[in-house]
Write a structure and sequence with these properties.
It is a single chain. By secondary structure, the protein is an alpha/beta fold. The protein is built from seven helices and ten strands. The strands form two sheets. The chain has a six-stranded mixed sheet with strand order 6-7-8-3-9-10. A four-stranded antiparallel sheet has the order 2-1-4-5, with helices on one face.
């Protein structure tokens, strides 16, 4: 397998007035294409910060991050935004669906930034909703769906652009046990059947069991 993500000697600090607050310390990590990696560690260990750096939401203070040969740490903000929309699918703990839009319209949102025709967008959205098992719920609004169904809509939205990496930040953190198991099974299927490279932050050992590899962060260090 080829190395898709290369995190090289990355450190990240934030500043509060004149005080530097280190969050990540000299992190080096490689993720192969088609891998399913879980990042674990206590609150404040830097898991979400590392995820955000790989996803191009934030930039490192030092070091480089290569994704499919592109050093995203060197991109300017507009180039980085374009890179994110073309290459990364996001799944969050709280779904982030827009309540006044149907499931179909929520999933279609990322495609509105593309040059696809309306008919092409419809085909992509229907395929994504079918993959997550919600083809019969596309006209429902978020309030008409269960938490597990809302998260599946969010996953459909994340994969509708066919991104090269899927980043999931505590994707089961707000779900009951049954719904969490369904979401983890879906992520596992996306990885195995569709060869999606997945990076998942989780506190849940049961969730981490679905991953191929598990790495732990402790106070900004990869251990």
């Amino acid at each position: 397998m080829s190395e898709l993500i290369k995190v090289n000697n990355v450190s990240k600090s934030y500043w509060r007035d004149s005080f530097e607050i280190p969050v990540l310390n000299d992190i080096t990590l490689c993720v192969n294409e088609g891998d399913f990696l879980a990042l674990m560690g206590p609150s404040g260990s830097g898991k979400t910060t590392l995820l955000n750096l790989v996803a191009g939401i934030d930039k490192p203070t030092r070091g480089s991050i290569e994704v499919a040969g592109t050093d995203i740490a060197k991109l300017n903000e507009s180039s980085l935004a374009k890179w994110r929309s073309n290459n990364v699918g996001f799944v969050f703990q709280f779904y982030n669906l827009i309540p006044v839009l149907t499931a179909f319209e929520n999933v279609e949102l990322p495609l509105l930034l593309t040059k696809l025709s309306k008919a092409e967008r419809r085909k992509h959205v229907e395929t994504a909703l079918s993959v997550v098992g919600l083809a019969d719920r596309m006209d429902h609004y978020p309030k008409q769906l269960s938490g597990g169904q809302e998260q599946r809509v969010a996953i459909a939205r994340a994969v509708v652009t066919d991104p090269i990496i899927l980043v999931a930040d505590e994707p089961t953190g707000d779900l009951d046990k049954h719904s969490a198991t369904e979401i983890l099974t879906l992520l596992e299927r996306l990885n195995k059947e569709f060869n999606k490279t997945i990076l998942m932050v989780t506190h849940d050992p049961h969730a981490a069991e679905k991953a191929h590899n598990v790495r732990h962060l402790e106070k900004g260090d990869l251990v």
